[in-house]
Design a protein that fits this description.
Blueprint lengths: L3 E3 L6 E3 L9 E3 L4 H11 L2 H4 L3 H4 L3 E3 L47 H23 L15
Antiparallel strand pairs: 1-2, 3-4
C-alpha cells in the first residue's frame, strides 16, 4: 500500500508513489520566517506547536495557490509563494506564534511507542471504569462489586 498524505487545509489525499492524479503538493518551507507565515495563514493551532523538522513533512495542495505562485514549468513554487486560495480557517493570531518554532526534542521510536501504549491503556481504563460504573461520586475508583 502506498503511504498517503493529506493537505493540511482541505484534507485532499495524495498517494506518495502514485502521481497519476497530478495533484501538486507543497511541503512547508524550511526557512523559519516563511514557515511561520504559512502556519499563520493555514490557521491550524496544532501546526504552531510543531518543530520545523516535523512541519517539513506537512503538505499543502495546489488548490491553495494561484497560477502565478508556480514557476514557468508549473512543477515548483516560487520562493515568495504562500497559500492564499480556498483557505478554510482564519489566520492565527501573532501571539500564538511568539515561540515559533517549537524546539525539536528527539525521542526514540521505543519511547514513542511506549507513550502511545500508555495513552491507549489510560483510555481503556477510563472506558472500563465509566462503562461499569467503577467510579465513585467523588471520583475515586470502586472495586468490583462495591
Amino acid at each position: 500500500m502506498n503511504p498517503r498524505k493529506s493537505c493540511e487545509i482541505c484534507k485532499t489525499y495524495y498517494y506518495a508513489k502514485n502521481l497519476e492524479g497530478n495533484i501538486f503538493m507543497a511541503s512547508f518551507p524550511t526557512n523559519k520566517e516563511r514557515c511561520k507565515l504559512w502556519v499563520k495563514i493555514v490557521g491550524n493551532k496544532a501546526l504552531a506547536e510543531l518543530p520545523l523538522i516535523q512541519l517539513k513533512r506537512k503538505l499543502i495542495c495546489q488548490n491553495h495557490f494561484t497560477p502565478h505562485d508556480f514557476n514557468h514549468n508549473k512543477n515548483r513554487l516560487k520562493r515568495t509563494s504562500f497559500p492564499s486560495q480556498n483557505l478554510t480557517r482564519p489566520p492565527l493570531d501573532d501571539t500564538l506564534l511568539e515561540s515559533f518554532p517549537k524546539p525539536f526534542t528527539k525521542i526514540t521510536e521505543n519511547e514513542m511507542k511506549l507513550n502511545q501504549y500508555k495513552k491507549k491503556c489510560e483510555q481503556i481504563v477510563q472506558l472500563v471504569q465509566h462503562d461499569h460504573n467503577y467510579v465513585s461520586q467523588d471520583g475515586g475508583v470502586l472495586g468490583h462489586g462495591n
